[in-house]
Amino acid sequence: MPSFVYVARETGSGKEIRSSLDAATEPAAIAALLNRNLLVVSIQEKVTKKGRTAGGSVPLTDLVMFTRQLATMIDAGLAMVQSLQALAEQTQNKVMRDVIKDVCTRVEGGDSFSEALQKHPKAFNRLFVAMVGAGEKGGLLSEILARLATYLENTARLRKKVKSAMMYPTVVTVVAIGITVFLLIKVIPVFGDIYSGFGAKLPGPTQFLISLSNLLKSYFLLFLAAGGGSVYGWLYFIKTPPGREFWDTQRIKLPIFGVIAHKICLARFTRTLSSLVRSGVPILEVLQIVSQTVGNVVMEKAIKVASSDIERGESISVALGKHPVFPNMIIRMISAGEQTGKIDNMLERISDFLDEEIEVTLSGLTSLIEPILIVVLGVVIGGMVICMFLPIFKLSEVVSKK
């Protein structure tokens, strides 16, 4: 619910009061103050630095459902306010429900739907607002919302595929590290105490493993703090502008994973560009929005430079072709789309093609990672076991020397 900052005077004493209150609309806020015997001098809605009201972010699945249901209701002929009220009543997520109620209140107060959405940037990004605004101007809001829902569904499906593909190796890696640390701290010291009574020199690998175990056991908390600090430092670094640019530059160059990350950014770029162009948003505004939603600083800078070139009269394919981050195949297909006047269809085909390639790569990677992790885990654990049993293989030699 919106919050209003006001200056008022008490009707009896004339004392000036400066405070704030929550109300659905400004007239409702004024009425509430009058009921308190306060004469309103000035009142305005509390906004953030960018002129937007505060609001929480919502899950992508809830946003997809909201967009799809709203498109269906508007296509069926229901009024916007009536549709928003119905969606607010049936939404389970509290944050989403509050956002829809606030949007409904603003629409009732005279704001356009896109203007009301713009007040909640955490829930509705610039892409969402731009497409809705284009749909309102062209009288195709239901169609635009349906396209937007499809776009969000594709985005959610791709994100789910990536997460599910990375879940297995992540869990196995964490378990492997945990088992290794447990063996080094709890199991190997027992063997070390047994072998220390032999009085003979231990094999090199065994002695190294025992020394590593003693070091880790003595300074476990220090190693843990150092590891946690390193992870925190890295995460903090990649959130800074130089760190993010460094990481975005390097991650698309990584073997296998870099190829997937690059294709994901390209698929997001082409699908977003296709949706906005098809919705009738001006091309320069389209590129400005796409640069902020592509998810990679290197590509973002390339798109902004290309936008300047397009503004000077160059075609999209020529402007984008100057940057190596965009493959030749995509540039040629965009050029073909420009020549035929169906660039939105061509961009959608590119995004579908990239999504299929990503899915195939992820499926192959998942099938390949499983045996690799099993081999690595077997080598690590098996190597530790062999190192600790080496002295037993030479037990007769050790006893005879003693």
Structural write-up:
This protein is mostly helical and 402 residues long. 74% of the residues lie in helices and 6% in strands. The protein is built from 17 helices and three strands. It has helices at 26-35, 60-75, 80-90, 94-108, 113-118, 126-138, 141-196, 204-218, 220-237, 241-251, 257-278, 283-293, 297-311, 316-321, 328-340, 343-393, 395-401; strands at 3-10, 16-22, 38-45. Strands 2-1-3 form a three-stranded antiparallel beta sheet, with helices on one face.
List keywords for this structure.
402 residues; mainly alpha; 3 strands; extended
Low-confidence stretches: 48-54
Topology as a string of helices (H) and strands (E):
EEHEHHHHHHHHHHHHHHHH
Order of strands in the sheet with the most strands?
A: 2-1-3
Structural class: mainly alpha
Strand content: 5-15%
Helix content: over 70%
Task: Count up the helices.
Answer: 17
Cα separation of the termini: 84 Å
Taken from the alpha-carbon principal axes, the silhouette is: extended
Largest sheet: 3 strands, antiparallel
Number of strands: 3
Radius of gyration, whole Å: 31 Å
Please tell me the overall pLDDT.
81
